[in-house]
Amino acid sequence: MRITAVVAALLAGAALTAAAPAALAGTGHTAIRAGAAQASETKYWVDTFATATGFYRGGFLYAGTHYVFCKRRGDRVGTADQYNHWWLLTDMDTGGRDYVSAYYLSRWGNDEARDNSGREIPNC
């Protein structure tokens, strides 16, 4: 199982809002690239291998099968060998709608954001 120090950084930023870049200054963690999410309600089903923390609200998406709406490029999450820059908009198991790192996808490699059938998840 992959473990990342970013989880701790995300937990520390649990109360962040859209004004996150200033709040994250000096932490080595930056916000997901700016812009309002223009997500459709189309659901793309994905499997995650571990519990992921939401970027802005800090809720949790537990390991298992979930739907996501779209992706947005942001911080790199992972290790030197296993990583992802994509963040997926979803309805969290706790905490409402938020972004989680595509690093937690079970089926795909570095910097990939695909659903379980192999379709690329669209940009937000």
UniProtKB/TrEMBL annotation:
It comes from Streptosporangium fragile. The keyword Signal applies. The lineage of its organism: Bacteria, Bacillati, Actinomycetota, Actinomycetes, Streptosporangiales. Keywords: Signal. Residues 1-25 form the signal peptide. It comes from the Bacteria. This is SH3 domain-containing protein.
